[in-house]
Amino acid sequence: MSMFQRQIGKQFAILLVLVLIWLAVEFMIRFGILNPFYELNLILIGINIILAVSLNLINGFNGQFSIGHAGFMAVGAYGAAMITLKTQLPLPLALLFGALLAGVFGVLVGIPTLRLRGDYLAIATLGFGEIIRGIIVNIDYIGGAYGLSGIPKIATWSWVFWLTVLTVIIITNFVNSTHGRATISIRENEIAAEAMGINTTKYKVMAFTIGSFFAGLAGGLHAHYFYTIQPNTFNFLKSFDILVMVVLGGQGSITGSIIAAIFLTIISASLQSLAALRLVIYALLLIIIMLFRPQGLMGTKEFSFKMFSKKSKDREEKPHGTAVGQ
Amino acid sequence: MEVFLQQLINGISLGSIYALIALGYTMVYGIVQLINFAHGDVYMVGAYLGFFATAILGWSFLPALVMAMIVCAILGVVIEKLAYKPLRNAPRITALITAIGVSLFLEYGTMLLVTPQVRTFPQVLPEVQWKLLGNLTVSNRQVIILVITIVLMVLLQYIVHKTKIGKAMRAVSYDKQAAQLMGINVNQTISATFAIGSALAAAAGVLVGIYYNAINPLMGIMPGLKAFVAAVLGGIGIIPGAMTGGFLLGIVEAMVSGYGKSLYRDPVAFVILIIILIVKPAGLFGKNVREKV
Amino acid sequence: GGGGETKQAADAKEIIIGGNLELSGAVATFGTAIKNGAQLYFDEVNAAGGVLGKQIKFDVLDNKSDATEATNVATRLITQDKVVAIIGAATTGNTMGYMPVAIDAKIPIITPSGTALEVTVDPNTKKVRDYVFRTCFIDPFQGTAMANFAIKDLKAKTAVLYIDNNSPYSKGLAQFFEESFTKQGGKIVGKEAFVPEDQDFKATLTKIKGLNPDVIYVPAYYEPVGKIVKQGRELGITVPFLGGDGWDSPKLPEIAGAAALNNTYFTNHYSSQQDDPVIKEFVKKYQAKYGQVPDTFAALGYDTAVLLVNAIKNAGDASPEKIKDALAKSKDVQAVTGKLSFDENHNPIKGAVILEMKDGKQAFKTYVKP
Amino acid sequence: MLKVEDIHVYYGAIHAIKGISLEVPQGKIVTLIGANGAGKTTTLNTICGLTKPKSGKIFFEGKDITGVDTQNIVRLGLTQVPEGRRIFANMPVYENLELGAFLNKDKKQVAQDMERVYARFPRLLERKHQLAGSLSGGEQQMLAMGRALMSRPKLLLLDEPSMGLSPILVKEIFSIIKELNEQGTTILLVEQNAKMALSIADKGYVVETGRIVMAGDAQELLESPEVKKAYLGG
Amino acid sequence: MALLSVNNLSISFGGLKAVSDLNLELYKNDLAGLIGPNGAGKTTVFNMLTGVYLPTSGDILLDGKSIVGLKPYQINQRGIARTFQNIRLFSDLTVIDNLKIAFHSHSKYGLLGAICRLPGFYSGEREIHERSMELLRIFNLDHKWDELAKNLPYGEQRRLEIARAMATQPRLLLLDEPAAGMNPQETQDLMNLIRWIRNEFDLTILLIEHDMSLVMGVCEKIYVLDYGQIIALGTPDEIKNNRRVIEAYLGEEAS
Ligand SMILES: Nc1ncnc2c1ncn2[C@@H]1O[C@H](COP(=O)(O)OP(=O)(O)OP(=O)(O)O)[C@@H](O)[C@H]1O
Ligand SMILES: Nc1ncnc2c1ncn2[C@@H]1O[C@H](COP(=O)(O)OP(=O)(O)OP(=O)(O)O)[C@@H](O)[C@H]1O
Ligand SMILES: [Mg+2]
Ligand SMILES: [Mg+2]
C-alpha cells in the first residue's frame, strides 16, 4: 500500500509544481513581463515537446523507424483548422477532431506498412508524409499551395501548456504499464516478444496510432497559434527536425525528448540573425553532440534528481535505438 | 505510340540520373548500413567542383570530372573519419543524425562560400540532338549519362562481388571484428567504400550540372531523397537494385506526368513505392530473409 | 504596453528597420537578393547622413522559408528589437504567415515580392489592410497584361499553363491569365505543374507538345523557367513561352541558352538591360558591391527600401503609425522599377513592360499602362 | 612462441582481466579453463588485438605485438576462432572459406586448402553454396574452424569450439585439434569442457575472475582435486 | 488424450527437406528430450511448434486442436512457451522487466486503466510485480532483479530465459539447448531445476540438448532426429545402446 501512497504523493507534488509554473508564466504574460517573443517560443517549445514525445513512442520505445511525423502533424493541423474555419465549434473539439483524424491516418498507414522493417519502414513513412503533403497541395478547398490563413489565434499559453502536460502524462503512463512493456519488448527483440505472447502487430499499430494522434494534436495547436498553415511547413525536413529532437534527447527517454525540444527550440530562435551560418552552426552542434553523447542526452534513462546522488547505479548505458535496417 | 516512346526515353533519362546517385548511396549502405543522407550533398559539391574547374579554371570536361571525383572521394573519406567512424559502435540512428548534420553542414557551408545564387556551366560538352524514328528526340548527353550509369553499375557490381576488396567490404559489412580476424583492414575498407561512393556522387554531380546547366547549394536535397527512394525500391544495399529502382522511379514519374496529372507526380510515385514495398518488403531485389531463430 | 516602448525607439540614435526574409531554406535565393538590394540603399542613405539625422539599422532575421519561422522572426523583430517597420517576406505565403503579428502590433510591413491579392486586401471583408504594403505587381495585373498581349499581339487562340505548384505567385498569375485569356475568346488547352526542385521537365513538356498550344504560359522563377525553355526547345517545341517578372535575371539566358529563349516574352517592371540611367546606375552599384548582376528580387528589395526611407522622410518621425500613413501617401517615388505610387489597395501603381528575349538579350516589346 | 605478461583489461569501469601472464610454447596445446565470465574470451581477444590492454605486454615469436592492429597480428600467423562462431552469415559457405585465406595470395594453395577443409568437413561441401547464416549451429562451428584453417596459422586461438555440438562432433573437433597440432600448429584452447580440453592439452591454466589461479601440466591439473571439484563435475 | 500430437510434419527450405514426416506425442507431465546431430532439424521442429515457421505439410494438435497457421503469440497464449538456442533476452531491460513482459497476456487491466492510472492499474501492477519476484526467487535470480539482463553471466541468462518462458504460464515448455555454455556444476543445478519445475507447475517439457549428462539424467523419453527423421525413440538406456544413435550421434564409447 505504501508504494501506492508514495506514487500518489509524488504525483501530487509534480502537479503542484506544474500549476506553479503555469501560473507564473500566465502571470508574466498578463502583465507584460514576458513579451510575446518569449511567449511564442514557449508555445513552440510546448508543441515541439508534444511532437518529440509522440515520435519517441514510435521510434524510441517501439523501435519502429518512422520519419513521416510531419505528415500526421499536417493532418491534425488541417483537420482542426477546417473545423474552426467552417464550423463554429470550440477549440477543444477542433483539436480533438484534428488529432483523431491524424490517429485514423496513423491506423491506415500503420496496418499495411508496419510489416516493413528498418529502413524500408522509414522510407514508407517518409513517403506517406510526402503523399499527405502532395495531396494537400492539390486540394484547393483547403488552400492548396497557399495554405490556410485567417485561422483565429485561439490556442493560448494555457491550452498549449496543459495539453503538453496531458500528452506527456498519457504517454508516460502508457509506457510504464504492461502495454508499454509490450511496446518496448518489440524494440528489444521482436521474435522473443512474439514468443512471449505479445501481439506485435497490435502493439506496433497502437504505438503508431497514439503517436500520430498526438502529432495531430500538435498540428492543431500549431494551426491555432500561427494563423497560417502551409503544406510546405510539413515537409520531410520538418520530420527530420522532430527526429533529431528524439535522438538528441535519447530514444526511449521522455524527459530526454522534453529537454531536447526545449534546447533545440531555443537554439533555433537565438540563431535567427545568422542566415546560412545559422544552419552551419546547428549542423555542427548536431554532429558534436552525437559524437560525444551517441546515446542522446539522456540515453534511455529518465531525468530525476536521484540521478545526481552517488547511490545511483552506474549501469553501462549502451543504448538500443530504433532497429534500423534488416 | 510515338509519345509513349518519347516518354519512355524521358523516363529512362531521368531514371539514369536517379540511378547514378543511387549507386553510391546503396553501396555505402550495403557496406556500413548507414543511410548517408549527406550523399546528395556530396553530389552537389561535385557539381560545384566541376563548375569551378570548367567555368573558373577553364578546364575541359574530362579533367574536371576526374578532379571532382578525386576531391569528393577525399571529402567522403574525411566525412567518414570525422563524423561516422567514432559512431561505429553506436546505434545506427545516431550516425543517421550526424549524417543529417553533415548534410546541412555541406548545404549551408557551400551557401556561405558561394552564395545561394544559381550557377551555370559553360558549354564544355557540346550538345547534339538526335532524331530517332521520325520525331523522337534524344540528346548525346542523355546517352552519355545512361551509358556511364550502366558501366558504373557493372563495374561496382564487379568490384563488390568479384574482387578481393569487394569481398573484404562484404565481410566488414557483416562483422567487423571477424573481418579483422581474417586479416582485413577494416578502416581502409570502409574508407575505400566512402571514396568510391563519393566519387560516384561527384561524377553524377558534374554530369547533371552539365546536363541541366544549373546548380545551387540545395540542389542535392531532392535528387538525394529520390535516389534514396530508388535504392530502397530496388532493395537497399543491392547494386543492380539501385539501378533498377532508379529507372523505375524515373519511368513512373515520366508516365504520371505524361499520362496522368503532373500535379500528382510525386504522391503517385510514393504510392507506387509503398505498394511495391508492401508486396516485396525488402525491395524488388531484396530477399526477405527472416532471421534464423 | 507596446506604445510606450516604440516611442522610446523613436527617440533612439538609430532607426531600426526589420527584415523578415528567407535567408535559408527553399527560397533562400529570393530572400538573399532582397536583403542585398535593400541593404545597398540603406548604406547609401547612411553614407549620405541618414534620414531625419539618424542612421538606419537594417536588422534582418532568417525565416528559413517557413511561415511559422516568419511569425517567430516578426515577433522577435517587434518585441525584442523594436523595429519601426518590416521588409518581407519574399513570398506571399510567408508574408501572410506573419502578417497578423505585425497588424496586431501596428507595425507597417512591406513585402517586396508577395504578389497575391489578399496580401494587402482582406478577402473576407474586402477592406485594405492598413499596415500592409507591397512593392511588386499584383497577380491580376501581370496575368491580365500577358493574356492581352498573347491574344492581341501574338494572335494566340490556345494556351497551356505550366505552373510552379508550390508557389502561390505562380498560381495567381496563371489564374488571372486564364480568366482574361478565356474572356477574350482564347482557350486553355492544358494545365500542368512542376515543383521548383525539379530538374527534368521533359515528360510534361512532351505532353504539352502533344496538346499543340499557340503559347505556353510559365509564370515562375527563372531557374526552373530556364530549364523548361531549354528542354522544351530540345523536344522541338517552337511556340512562344510566356512569363512574368520572375523571369528577370541574367541567369535565364545562361541556363536556357540564348537561342532557346528566342520567341519568349515576359512582363516586367523594368529591364535591367534598359538604357534608363537610374537602372544602369543601380546595376552598376549592385555589381560593385556583390559581384553579381541584380535580379528582380534585388531590384524590388532596393525599391522597398527607397519607399520606406521616403515615407520616413515625409512623415518627419520614425514612428510606425506615421510611417504607415506616409507610406500610403507615397507619390511618384523614383525607384528602380519605376516611379511608384500606392493605390487605395496599397499596391504600387506602375506600368509594366513586356520584354522579348532576343539572342539572350532583353528587348523592349510594349509598354502596358497601370 | 606466445608470451603474455601481466595484462590488465578494462571494459569501461569493469576490471575484467587483473594481471594475467601465460606462455604458449611452440608446437604445444595450451588450454585455458574457467567458469563463465572468468575472462577467457577477453584474454584471447586481447592477444589478437581486438581489445587493448591497459597495461602488460604480449610477445609473439619474440616480437612485441601489444597494441598492434588485429589485421597485422593475423599477418604474423596468429588467428582466432571466435566465441559464437562469427561466421559471415550473409555469404555462402565457400566465400567464408575464401575469406579465411584473405591474406594468402597463392591461388593454387588456397584451392588446395579448400579441398582439405571440405574433406575434413564433408557437411560443408554439401552446403557449399548455402548462405552460412542458414546453417545449423554445429555446421556453423565447423565452418568457423574451417575458415581459420584456411589462413594456415602458426598459432590458433580457439574459443569454446565445442559449444553446441553433438557428442560425436565434439570428439571430432577435439581430434581435429590434436591432428592440427601434430601437423605443427600451436594451439591455445579455451574450453568450458575442461575434461576434454585437459585430456588433449600439454599445459593448462585455470582462470577465475580475471586471474590465473592455477597453472601446470595438463595431466596434473586433470588429477588435481580442486580442478576436479570445480570444473569436472565432481 | 495427448497434450501435443504432431502428425507427419514436414518442412523444406528451397530444395532442402529439413524435417520430414515427423510424428511425436507428448502427454501431460512428460519430460522428453529431442536429440540428434547438428543440423538434424531439432530447432526447426521447435520453430514449427511455436509458429515461427509454417510447416510445408502435416499437422500439430494441441489438446486435439490444430495450431498450424497461428501466429507465435497466439500459440504462446494457448500454452506453449520456449527458450532459444541463441539466447534472446530483452537484453537492455532489467531482469524483472523481462519477466513482467512475459506476464503481459495475464495482466488484468486495460489500456484506459493504464493511461488514467485507475485503481485497477495499481493492483494489477502490484500483482505482476509480486509474481515476477516470486518466479525470480524460484530461479534464484531475485538478488539480481534490478540488473540489466545483458550484464548477467551466461548461465544466469539461460536461467532467466527459462524463468521468462515460465512467466507466460505455459502447459508445454520447449527448451532449446538450455545447458549450452554451462559448466558441469551449473548443468547439475539446471537438471534439478528442470525436474522441480516440472513437478511444481505440473508441466510438460520437451528439451533439445547436446549435453548427454543432462539428457540422460532428466529425460524420461527421448526422440532422436537425424536428417529430419525420427530414427529412434525410447528411454535413456534404450537410446544409449541404440546402434543407429551411436553411429549418427553419440559416437563409440559414450563418455
Ligand atoms: N564488451 C563488454 N563490456 C563490458 N563487460 C564485458 C564485455 N565483455 C566481457 N565483459 C565482462 O568481462 C568479464 C570477462 O568476460 P569474458 O567474456 O572474457 O569471460 P569468459 O571467461 O570468456 O566467459 P564465457 O565462458 O561465458 O565465455 C565478464 O565479467 C564479462 O561480463
Ligand atoms: N531458414 C532456413 N533457411 C534454409 N535452411 C534452413 C533454415 N533453417 C534451418 N535450415 C536448415 O535446416 C537444417 C536443420 O536446422 P536446425 O537449426 O533445425 O538444426 P538443429 O537440429 O537445431 O541443429 P543444431 O543442434 O546444430 O542446432 C539445417 O541444415 C539448416 O541449414
Ligand atoms: Mg568466453
Ligand atoms: Mg538447433
From TrEMBL, chain A:
Cross-referenced InterPro entries: ABC_transp_permease, LivM-like
Keywords on record: Cell membrane, Membrane, Transmembrane, Transmembrane helix
GO-annotated cellular components: plasma membrane
Subcellular location: Cell membrane
Pfam family, one: BPD_transp_2
Bilayer topology term: Multi-pass membrane protein
Keyword presence, Oxidoreductase: no
Transmembrane segments: 12-34, 40-58, 65-85, 91-111, 120-142, 154-175, 205-227, 242-267, 274-292
GO molecular function: branched-chain amino acid transmembrane transporter activity
PANTHER family assigned: HIGH-AFFINITY BRANCHED-CHAIN AMINO ACID TRANSPORT PROTEIN BRAE, HIGH-AFFINITY BRANCHED-CHAIN AMINO ACID TRANSPORT SYSTEM PERMEASE
Name of protein: ABC-type transporter, integral membrane subunit
Organism from which the protein derives: Desulfotomaculum nigrificans (strain DSM 14880 / VKM B-2319 / CO-1-SRB) (Desulfotomaculum carboxydivorans)
UniProtKB/TrEMBL annotation, chain B:
GO molecular function, a single term: L-valine transmembrane transporter activity
GO cellular component, one term: plasma membrane
Keyword RNA-binding recorded: no
InterPro entries reported for this sequence: ABC_BtuC-like (IPR037294), ABC_transp_permease (IPR001851), BCAA_transport_permease (IPR052157)
Membrane-topology annotation of the record: Multi-pass membrane protein
Bilayer-crossing regions: 12-35, 65-84, 96-118, 138-160, 192-215, 227-256, 268-286
Predominant localisation class: membrane
UniProt-listed Gene3D superfamilies: ABC transporter involved in vitamin B12 uptake, BtuC (1.10.3470.10)
Pfam families named in the record: BPD_transp_2
Alphabetical GO biological process terms: D-alanine transmembrane transport; L-alanine transport; L-isoleucine import across plasma membrane
Alphabetical UniProt keywords: Amino-acid transport, Cell inner membrane, Cell membrane, Membrane, Transmembrane, Transmembrane helix, Transport
UniProt similarity note: Belongs to the binding-protein-dependent transport system permease family. LivHM subfamily.
PANTHER family, A to Z: BRANCHED-CHAIN AMINO ACID TRANSPORT SYSTEM PERMEASE PROTEIN LIVH (PTHR11795), HIGH-AFFINITY BRANCHED-CHAIN AMINO ACID TRANSPORT SYSTEM PERMEASE PROTEIN LIVH (PTHR11795:SF371)
Name the UniProt record assigns to this protein: ABC-type transporter, integral membrane subunit
Source organism of the structure: Desulfotomaculum nigrificans (strain DSM 14880 / VKM B-2319 / CO-1-SRB) (Desulfotomaculum carboxydivorans)
UniProtKB/TrEMBL annotation, chain D:
Alphabetically ordered keywords of this record: Amino-acid transport, ATP-binding, Hydrolase, Nucleotide-binding, Transport
Pfam family, one: ABC_tran
Gene Ontology molecular functions: ATP binding; ATP hydrolysis activity; branched-chain amino acid transmembrane transporter activity
InterPro entries according to UniProt: AAA+_ATPase, ABC_branched_ATPase_LivF/BraG, ABC_transporter-like_ATP-bd, ABC_transporter-like_CS, BCAA_Transport_ATP-bd_LivF, P-loop_NTPase
GO biological process, one term: L-amino acid transport
Enzyme Commission number(s) from the entry: 3.6.3.30
Coiled coil: none
Domain (ABC transporter): residue spans on this chain: 2-234
Highest taxon in the source lineage: Bacteria
ATP-binding is among the record's keywords: yes
Enzyme class: hydrolase
Family of the protein in this entry: Belongs to the ABC transporter superfamily.
Stored PANTHER family: BRANCHED-CHAIN AMINO ACID TRANSPORT SYSTEM,ATP-BINDING PROTEIN, HIGH-AFFINITY BRANCHED-CHAIN AMINO ACID TRANSPORT ATP-BINDING PROTEIN LIVF
The protein, known as: Fe(3+)-transporting ATPase
Native source species: Desulfotomaculum nigrificans (strain DSM 14880 / VKM B-2319 / CO-1-SRB)
UniProtKB/TrEMBL annotation, chain E:
Gene Ontology biological-process annotations: D-alanine transmembrane transport; L-alanine transport; L-isoleucine import across plasma membrane; L-valine import across plasma membrane
All residue ranges annotated as the ABC transporter domain in the record: 4-252
Source superkingdom: Bacteria
Pfam families referenced in this protein's UniProt entry, alphabetically: ABC_tran (PF00005), BCA_ABC_TP_C (PF12399)
One GO molecular-function entry: L-valine transmembrane transporter activity
SUPFAM superfamilies (UniProt xref): P-loop containing nucleoside triphosphate hydrolases
EC number(s) recorded for this UniProt protein: 3.6.3.25
GO annotations of cellular component type: plasma membrane
Keywords: ATP-binding, Hydrolase, Nucleotide-binding, Transport
CDD domains linked to this entry: ABC_Mj1267_LivG_branched (cd03219)
Enzyme class: hydrolase
Protein name: Sulfate-transporting ATPase
UniProt source species: Desulfotomaculum nigrificans (strain DSM 14880 / VKM B-2319 / CO-1-SRB)
